[in-house]
Amino acid sequence: MKKTALIMAGGRGERFWPRSRKSLPKQFLSLTNDGKTMIQLTVERILPLVDMEDIYIATNKDYKNLVLEQLPGIPKQNILCEPVGRNTAPCIGLGAVHIASKYEDAIMMVLPSDHLIKVPDIFTETLEQACEIASEDTNLVTIGIQPNYPETGYGYIKMNKEISKGTAYSVDCFVEKPNLEKAKAYVSSGSYVWNSGMFIWKISSILSNLQKYLPNMYSGLKNIQASIGTDSEEDCLISTFPTLESISIDYGIMEKASNIYVIPGNFGWDDVGSWLAIERIKGYDESNNTISGNVIAIDTNNCIIEAKEKLIATVGVENLVIVDTDDALLVSGKDFTGNIRKVLETLREQKAEKYL
Amino acid sequence: MKKTALIMAGGRGERFWPRSRKSLPKQFLSLTNDGKTMIQLTVERILPLVDMEDIYIATNKDYKNLVLEQLPGIPKQNILCEPVGRNTAPCIGLGAVHIASKYEDAIMMVLPSDHLIKVPDIFTETLEQACEIASEDTNLVTIGIQPNYPETGYGYIKMNKEISKGTAYSVDCFVEKPNLEKAKAYVSSGSYVWNSGMFIWKISSILSNLQKYLPNMYSGLKNIQASIGTDSEEDCLISTFPTLESISIDYGIMEKASNIYVIPGNFGWDDVGSWLAIERIKGYDESNNTISGNVIAIDTNNCIIEAKEKLIATVGVENLVIVDTDDALLVSGKDFTGNIRKVLETLREQKAEKYL
Fold first, then answer.
1. Of B311, B315, B346, which is closest to A333 when you measure between CB atoms?
2. Nearest CA to CA, how far is A337 from chain B (Å)?
3. pTM
4. For A195-245, what is the HEC assignment?
5. How many A/B residue pairs have CB atoms within 8 Å?
6. Which residues contact A333 (CB under 8 A, 6 or more apart)?
7. Are A339 and B296 in contact (CB < 8 Å)?
8. What's the pLDDT tens digit per position in A298-328?
9. Is A342 in Cβ contact with B328 (below 8 Å)?
């Protein structure tokens, strides 16, 4: 069966401020040393499985030009611009009806645009396994990540003990972000994996589940589907999409549907969820620093320093994240990067749009 | 007797890097909120006592244009450019022979160009007292600063118990920068003041002392004096000045001469010796931060942040000094600002002249 992909690229990447901005969010940045942006790497990773013309990008209209620039091989009509952000279920539904208007049925892989994967070969193998399972019945498949520490910032998936369908496990339940105590228990049990937000299913499977569990959304999506390729396509999207319920695919479908499978992935996944990820990605020097750009570090330990052309000199500091950009600089304690959002809140209050 | 002043402005101000640079050192910067540079404030403070045409600036040739720009009222011939740095004794001697070539005798006040004084009125009163004492005999007068903590970075002056000449004390001895234990003893004894590097004497007094204690230097200076106003003035300075012994006035004269007096000054003196001085000068906000420029400080305490137009956002940090300039940024732990010199050493090794 034809394989297609929907790459979700509407996020703001606020935890990567000041490098990530409203006008150039994280998925359009290069955070690795190869110069490729995260969304370019995402596309590159799935090209062994999916033709370029079958890759769809869901984003918002502000980022359409960024997608065109960074991914010139993607057909223009495959760039799906959400008029407003409506969480993942409507976004995925929009992708599904576009693919449905092109193919009678097809495999659809739903992938975030802003994750990194260290071993792409294992990733594509895992996706191939997922495609096999997804091609049967109305199976909905998700990729889980084998946890190696009790992260409290991710949702978890509880697997049933017995293996079904070869390497996949049937899903017992999805669980929300746990507290540390619960996370520890999840990790030590061996029965839980992190929810990576990657899904694989047939178009027919996801549409039938949308019809069953989110009938109003399904009906709106079918209206949109009917307009695809007509003169009213854009008008219909603009008038209909904002009426769709804002709900995540996890909550709207995955936690309710049957035939849910999870494949534990061991391909070096990183959601690059904060500046601290940079040291995981780039590694440390002998002083436990992760440094790039024009930096002189004296008596400096355990710091992440992302400089550009401006010289950054550090003297007698530790456990800091320092990130320079043309118009804004961040100096954050490593344990406080979660509070970068407070900077953005302040900027919004000050109507300092240019820094957002 | 005519009052004249020599302002010493040849320093590099390296402890104020990256704001202070080889091409624009500390004395030519404004560190206060009034927009006036330190050397402008120095001149302003003594104008109640000294005519502009009797103020001499000793500096090096690289800074001649800065002096002309910042102090347009100073006669061009009063800007004395040392061909090489030779410590304070030759610098003061050069000033003395220039003044000697203009006046038969005069009071000479020697003042650093990069100190701040909170109460200029008390400062001028103190200088007036010093001028009175200096006008008698061959008295050499220095201004001491009443210490309010055991600073180990300054030299101290031990006063004799008995008051001589009104408000002045005769000097027992000059002592080098002490260790903390000694500094504590000095402060608690009540008999010690900080050596401020400010001196007041008659031209005839300092020249006779130079002749006595530094006869070779005196002889070189007399050669220079003979050339002043002639066609060979510049050549003579360039050939003679580098031959003068590199020695401080403290070590060369003050520790040896008799008739030394010190007046304890209580005029809110600050030598602005490191970035930490900025909080003494500018004060703190409710989070003990001293902030200027475009800054958003979240969960930030006890920091000095000198931003310019670029936004600096701090999150969860404390005890830092953050200083931004157009091409270089410093992030230093407050207890480590003394190691800023290591940054400059590294820059010299890298031949990164533009940042020095």
1. B315
2. 7
3. 0.87
4. EEEEEEEEHHHHHHHHHHHCHHHHHHHHHHHHHCCCCCHHHHHHHHHHHCC
5. 121
6. A319, A320, A321, B299, B315, B316, B317
7. no
8. 999 999 999 999 999 999 999 999 999 999 9
9. no
Label residue B135 exposed, middle or buried (CB < 10 Å: 0-12, 13-18, 19+).
Answer: middle
Q: Using an 8 Å Cβ cutoff, are B347 and B356 in contact?
A: yes
Under 8 Å between Cβ of B322 and B312? yes
How far, rounded to the nearest angstrom, does the alpha carbon of residue B212 sit from its chain's CA centroid?
26
Torsion-angle region of residue A87: left (phi > 0), alpha (psi -120 to 50) or beta?
left
Nearest to A320 among B317, B330, B339 (CB): B317
Cβ count within 10 A of residue A351: 8
The rounded distance, in Å, linking the Cα atoms of B118 and B228 is 37
Give dist(CA B285, CA B300) in Å, integer.
11
CA distance A338 to B18: 30
Give the integer Cα–Cα distance in Å for A205 and B147.
82
Q: Report the run of H or E that residue B94 belongs to, with start and end.
A: helix B88-100
Answer positive or negative: Cα dihedral of B312, B317, B322, B328. negative
pLDDT at A158 over 80: yes
CB B203, CB B93: distance < 8 Å: no
Whether B312 and B324 have beta carbons less than 8 Å apart is answered as: yes
Short-list A200, A215, A218, CA closest to A140: A200
Q: What is the ipTM of this complex?
A: 0.86
Q: Which residues of chain B lie closer than 8 angstroms to A332, CB-CB? A: 313-317
- Summarised one tens digit per residue, pLDDT across range B125-182 is 999 999 999 999 999 999 999 998 999 989 999 999 777 667 899 999 999 999 999 9
Angle between helices B203-213 and B215-227 (to 10 degrees): 130
Look at residue B165 in the predicted model and tell me its pLDDT.
Answer: 66
Residue B252, both tokens: 């060369």
* Distance, CA of A274 to CA of A338 (rounded, Å): 8
From the list A313, A333, A355, the residue facing B317 with the nearest CB is A333
Question: Quick one: which H or E segment has residue A3?
Answer: strand A3-8
Residues from chain A that touch B18, judged by Cβ atoms under 8 A, are 311, 313
| Distance separating alpha carbons of residues A326 and A341, to the nearest angstrom | 20
Residue B140's H or E segment, with its range, is strand B140-145
Strands A269-270 and A116-117 turn out to be: antiparallel
How far is the alpha carbon of B241 from chain A, nearest alpha carbon, in Å? 37
CA distance B129 to B45: 15
Which one-letter amino acid corresponds to residue B37?
T
Contacts 24+ apart (CB under 8 A), B121-127: B122/B265, B122/B266, B122/B267, B122/B268, B123/B45, B123/B265, B123/B267, B124/B45, B124/B46, B124/B48, B124/B49, B126/B263, B126/B265, B126/B267, B127/B46, B127/B49, B127/B200
B158, B254 Cβ separation under 8 angstroms: no
Side by side, which strands form the sheet with B328-333?
Answer: A295-301, A311-318, B328-333, B320-324, B304-306, B290-292
Q: Is A286 left (phi over 0), alpha (psi -120 to 50) or beta?
A: alpha
